[in-house]
Amino acid sequence: xxxxxxxxxxxxxxxxxxxxxxxxxxxxxxxxxxxxxxxxxxxxxxxxxxxxxxxxxxxxxxxxxxxxxxxxxxxxxxxxxxxxxxxxxxxxxxxxxxxxxxxxxxxxxxxxxxxxxxxxxxxxxxxxxxxxxxxxxxxxxxxxxxxxxxxxxxxxxxxxxxxxxxxxxxxxxxxxxxxxxxxxxxxxxxxxxxxxxxxxxxxxxxxxxxxxxxxxxx
Length: 218
Ligand SMILES: C[S@@+](CC[C@H](N)C(=O)[O-])C[C@H]1O[C@@H](n2cnc3c(N)ncnc32)[C@H](O)[C@@H]1O
What we know:
alpha/beta; Rossmann fold
């Protein structure tokens, strides 16, 4: 795309952003309420004692290399092109990596062909829950980011994770800046912490797409 084409597209977004912001100002002025309907779910405050071992990392790759033990059985829910799967295979050397997505076509060929990879196409929560024979050391959750979708993936992951295993959530953010849509990951994570999982780590991201690592009770 040429530069002027990009400029035109950017202007279209920014014009609509101004309208969007004006409509929020009108809503707040008229109702005297914040636009809570823009959130997907309400996050409870997390218990204080969940953070005794919590650490902060500059990015998700550094966090994953630190918190995940090499050679384990892992899963990634939501794969897209498979670039992060490639990192997981190379960096964490899993003995098996189970990949879950709605579509196989976008996933890079070298990932699909890796002998350690097992690919499961369809809804990730249903497919993960159906793998009754597999116990995972860690599960990376990055599929459907709505409150309902993230909650279903989290519940399926809880059934399949080993005691003391790790649930890692991508996109711990209330709002996706690249899509201008709400995400429901924060309420799901905070609820899990209050149900007994420990908050082990958070990885920062310049776009605000933070990752958090929770440890299941041992
Ligand atoms: C943000 S992308 C994943 C990015 C990838 N984890 C990475 O870090 O590069 C989200 C993916 O989740 C998939 N997805 C969305 N809803 C899903 C569902 N219900 N079951 C399985 N996959 C889903 C989409 O097809 C998309 O490929």
